[in-house]
Design brief:
By secondary structure, the protein is an alpha+beta fold. The protein is built from one helix and nine strands.
Length: about 190
């Protein structure tokens, strides 16, 4: 009799552990789904803000990685590598953050006039902006590809002179929400 009671208790205990493990698993799945839904909602809001900023002509693209002329992508400080647009003027800066260079930050800083040449939306909702940059150091066609429902973007600069083209990966922000450190202009 004692054996039956002990075996019954062991089976009951094992059964209860199995049920609690299943409920924990379900709740973890629900938590992951809720987290994914929240991230998608944040991306969607950031995408709307980025599109509005571009439409208003007051935005900044902050790069997190850069590639010059087909080399390897390197990670860069996003508050030092950017393209800022304010109306019909732009500021473009590259920097290693280690000093030196024309802007005393290991890169270049240049300003100039900007002209929007083309805006194109593909069938998936991704937006491509083609901009003409005419500056003191930089004359190029810039193509900004903004991902659908997000502020994540890629920026390609096709230089007028020379063969050094630049591609950058990063995100688009409103000017007031993205702090950057601007080097000196020379």
């Amino acid at each position: 009799m004692k054996r039956i009671f002990i075996l019954t208790a062991i089976f009951a205990l094992a059964f209860s552990f199995n049920i609690s493990a299943q409920t924990e698993e379900v709740s973890k799945k629900e938590q992951k789904a809720a987290k994914r839904a929240l991230e998608a909602q944040k991306d969607s809001i950031a995408g709307v803000i980025a599109k509005d900023a571009i439409a208003n002509g007051e935005w900044i693209f902050r790069a997190i990685s850069m590639n010059v002329s087909g080399g390897a992508m390197i990670n860069v400080p996003s508050n030092l590598n950017f393209l800022m647009v304010q109306g019909d003027q732009f500021t473009f800066q590259t920097s290693t953050g280690f000093g030196g260079g024309p802007n005393n930050m290991g890169g270049i800083t240049t300003t100039g006039l900007i002209k929007v040449e083309n805006v194109d939306v593909d069938k998936h909702g991704n937006i491509s902006y083609s901009l003409r940059l005419n500056g003191t150091i930089l004359n190029a066609v810039a193509t900004l590809n903004l991902n659908r429902n997000s502020n994540i973007a890629d920026l390609y600069l096709n230089m007028d002179r020379g063969t050094r083209n630049i591609s950058m990966a990063g995100a688009v922000y409103t000017i007031g929400s993205a702090q950057v450190f601007e080097g000196s202009l020379k």
